[in-house]
Amino acid sequence: MKALVHSVRFQVYSIIDNLMARNRDALKGLGKAFVGGYISLAEGEKDPRNLLVAFAIARVILIEFDISDHVESMFNITYCYFPITFRPPPNDPYGITTEDLQKALRGCLTACPSFGPLAVPIWLEKLAAGSPNTKRDALQTMVLCLPVYGSALARASARKLWNSLKLEIFQPTDPLTEEEALKTTQALVETIYAQEEDAIESDDHVQGLARDVCEECIHILREPEKNQARPAIKVLCAFLATTPAVLRFTLSQAVPHLVKLFLNPDEASNRAPILLLLADLTNASRESMPKAVADDTPIPMLPYKDEVLGAVSVGLKASPSRIPALSLLRGLVTTPNLLTDQELGFIVHSVDEVFQTDASENDDFSDSAVLEVLTIVGKTAPHHLEQQTLPMLFSSLPDQAPPRDAANERIECWRTLLALKTLCVHPELFENLVTRVTAKVDSICFPETTRDSIEDAEPDAAYAHALLKTIADTLSAKVDAGHVDVAKYIDGLVPGLYNLFIFSALQPVQVIATDHRLVRAAAEIIALVSQRVPAQRQASFVAAIFEALSSGELQGVAAGAQKLPADAKLLLLDVKCHFYMGCGVRSFVLQESASTSQKNLLALFSAGVMTAHKEILPSPPALDGFLNQLLIWSLTRADHYLQSESAWHLISSLVNKHADVATIFLEDKLNNFWPQYIASSEVSSTQRRQALQAWVWISKALVVRKDPHLTRFTDRLFEVFGDNEISWDAAKALGEIAGVDQILIKRHHVVLKILHAQKFVNGILPRIISGAQDSSRPAHEQTAYLVALTSLIKAIPKAAYAHEMPSLMPLLLRGLDLPDFEIRADVIDTLLAAAEGDASEQGLVSEHASTLVNIMLKNSMADDMPSVRVRTTALQYLGILPKIVRYDVLHPSKSTVIRELAIVLDDPKRSVRKEAVDTRTVW
Amino acid sequence: MAGAIFNPNPTVFTAKPTVRKSDLAKQSLWINEKAKVEDNEDGPDPIDQDEIFDLIRSIDDPEHPNTLEELRVVSAPQIQVKGNHVLVEFTPTIPHCGMSTLIGLSIRVRLLRSLPDRYKVDILLQPGSHQSEHAVNKQLNDKERVAAALENPALLESVENCLVGAGRRGHSE
């Protein structure tokens, strides 16, 4: 056989394989002669293609044939290949991988229990001398073979195997091998003890390996602070996942030992590591429980929970052991059925104490751990938080804001608010939060005793803002989690907010709640609540808002603590026009005198309307007047960005939902609004920019629904690229149209078509590229195209422009010379995103490598480039270049880069220095 | 390097993130406005001991899979910055540790690559922490000997091995 070439040998194997498949009984009839013959045939085979077949044949022989006389020879023709060291040559046409061979060989090795005694010495040898790959292969094979070879063998060779496994665990070559060694130990223990499981009644019956190893590990654990304690606890944790008896035994040895050590006064300094070890054990014992826990599932930690809890409560009291104690606690509370309700109450109590005492020594970062434990408890037993934690937190919130220079008190407030925000996502707790916090906001905005000096109202306003933000952030988390109780706050919370802010705006003097930041936070809350409200309820809500907008009638929207005068009227829009709402005709009344703070209220109304379902909104032909007036109002009357922005949001949302019937409105914008407010050079440039922003929002409404009107809207923007005054703004507007925003989103019930951004980009990108390349155009027009390009690809997902990359690259490089720093930083960000792409894009980078290096270096010098953001991103890009470009391309630049970066290391900004250090290290 | 392990079972401490004290004072009155600290008005940030500690805390120990910070070989209070002069002291885990020079050399190379060249860096053993303190100090602060050591490819490789994780700056990845 050895004299034949491998292709002939392959045919021989194929013949035998065929015979095996079709005439197996006949082969069996040949008896030992066949087995003996095959062994001599297969001996010394080296070709991987043939081996794959040979292993398959061998497996059948091992399982089905009588090999009692040939065990050793069969062993020799299989184990001689173990472990597989074959590495396929590059571009191997046969496609045989190491894994294929390993799998086939393991099939043979696990086929026959009588290989056991012969295999153990080989394993030991491979473990002692092999490379990491060989070791891992050997360990994985052991995991598979041990159960097959049986418990008797495992027991007999346990000591020897453990001795070499121990080396891998306690002095690991690498983490992967260590993990495999732990798994093998598990398999070994399982094989030994699985059968006698029923015989083991008490811990004394666990004899042999498990007992020895446990004792060994516990001996090491006498010094819990030392390096070796880690692997020791890993071994014990691995034991927990084997058989129930071993689990019980291990815990009964380890937990009391550690607890005793913890209570030993001489070891007081080592309490932190002891708690961490206990936490590992607790987590591992939780993992050992089945996924679905029934009431009668045994809980391994149950017998020890009292002593462990004792250790926790001691550990929580001292600051060095606080975080370890909390992580142990997390392990306990995440174990299902372990703790009783009363114990949870006790835990909440002691954790609360930690949170309170923390104030002065807030540098140990236990807050997040505290909150994590409380959140977990809150999921099962919110009443403990409600009774203990929330009262504590609320009482630590002051009634008046800390003064401007009291930074520590302010941080303390924020910390409390952060805790509330994290914990109160649960419906019951959230209700509590809303009541308490709104009451607090009310009392801050309208304190019962007017303070003597009101000149510094800003801290109060900031405090109220922080409170409102807390509600908004919690709501946002609840909306993300899909909680249904959000909708019910349309009654109570929302009217209360309207009430508070409208009342404030009607005051003759400046009060706290007129601050635009507060209004914004309140608008956020209103939008979050109203988007979850069912359409029916929304209908009456929106109707009330329109009522307020049209007639100034406020009783429909606002209800709350502050008494609005019965005849209070508030007219924002100084407009006279009609629109149909349901059946009645409403008219806007002329109103000239709204103050800034009153006009700010539009944000609140807009927030309520833009989240409404399409069906309940009045539709455009009737609404045209309203929209037109609102638009003009946003340009001429609005005196704060908040006002015009909310007007545009409202317009955009309405146009989006009714674009199919809004033709008249849209045509009017294209034919009248554009020439009058944007294209006309007689209008002041600030106003033209404002109008462009409004244009952006109308276009956005059309983009997301892939409306056919859109192209005419974007065409108009291209028309003004030649305009000296607003060409840059028009160019940037193109990017803003494509950008993602928080208004036109699915949750706000907008008409949204998939891949709308791609369609938009495909429509205008070629035009922009050719415009930027066209050198017949005036220079500033080309620049405008370049600006449009950079702002556009900054705003869209990478997939939308990836195919254009080759033609984009030179343009982007030109973009880096633009004087606008924001644009430069955006370009570099785009390049960074492109750098993560596939090989073809990286090849593209290689072509421009030396140019890129020079530009980036120039942009990273503090002397030439005042913008921190550009410097940082330029350095990041420099740092990524060596990872995507071949070294030989970059070699010529290397010394320059390292020299130049030495200067950047002295940058005045810390964040830039950090990037410079990292980049220089990469080079 | 193989074979001789000087301290087979050193004490491991947990690493803590550091807070820069100056950051606390800069807080705005309004919540959530912290994001805008990156503006150019608030002057240069000088290089301080925390920053230098950040540079060297995550250097790996040559013997163990732990960082210098975890073994308390280096710590922020052991670093002093005065003008253009940096003094770094480090404490080997045991007084007869033969790895001290390698650790010191790793710190030196890291700082050589990461600090502007206007700084003069002195790297010393914590007084009384090592048997041959004087010899090691002399070796680490002699320009010629450091340069010569870095010419040795084997030594440079072991230094590079220690510096692989140095960019983590105390965060685990």
TrEMBL record, chain A:
Residue span, MMS19 N-terminal domain: 1-171
Annotated signal sequence range: none
Gene Ontology biological process terms from the UniProt entry: DNA repair; iron-sulfur cluster assembly; protein maturation
Keyword terms of this UniProt record: DNA damage, DNA repair, Nucleus, Repeat
Pfam families reported in the protein's UniProt record: MMS19_C, MMS19_N
InterPro entries, A to Z: ARM-like (IPR011989), ARM-type_fold (IPR016024), MMS19 (IPR039920), MMS19_C (IPR024687), MMS19_N (IPR029240)
Entry GO CC: cytosolic [4Fe-4S] assembly targeting complex; nucleus
Ranges of residues in domain MMS19 C-terminal: 416-882
Primary residence: nucleus
Localization in the cell: Nucleus
Functional description taken from the UniProt entry: Key component of the cytosolic iron-sulfur protein assembly (CIA) complex, a multiprotein complex that mediates the incorporation of iron-sulfur cluster into apoproteins specifically involved in DNA metabolism and genomic integrity. In the CIA complex, MMS19 acts as an adapter between early-acting CIA components and a subset of cellular target iron-sulfur proteins.
Similarity annotation: Belongs to the MET18/MMS19 family.
Protein name: MMS19 nucleotide excision repair protein
Automatic annotation (TrEMBL), chain B:
Record bears the keyword Ribosomal protein: no
Sequence similarity: Belongs to the MIP18 family.
Gene Ontology BP terms: chromosome segregation; protein maturation
Species the sequence originates in: Asterophora parasitica
Record domain MIP18 family-like: where: 50-121
GO annotations of cellular component type: intracellular protein-containing complex; iron-sulfur cluster assembly complex
Keywords noted in UniProt: Chromosome partition
Protein name: MIP18 family-like domain-containing protein
Pfam family, one: FeS_assembly_P
InterPro entries given in the database record: FSCA_dom_sf, MIP18, MIP18-like
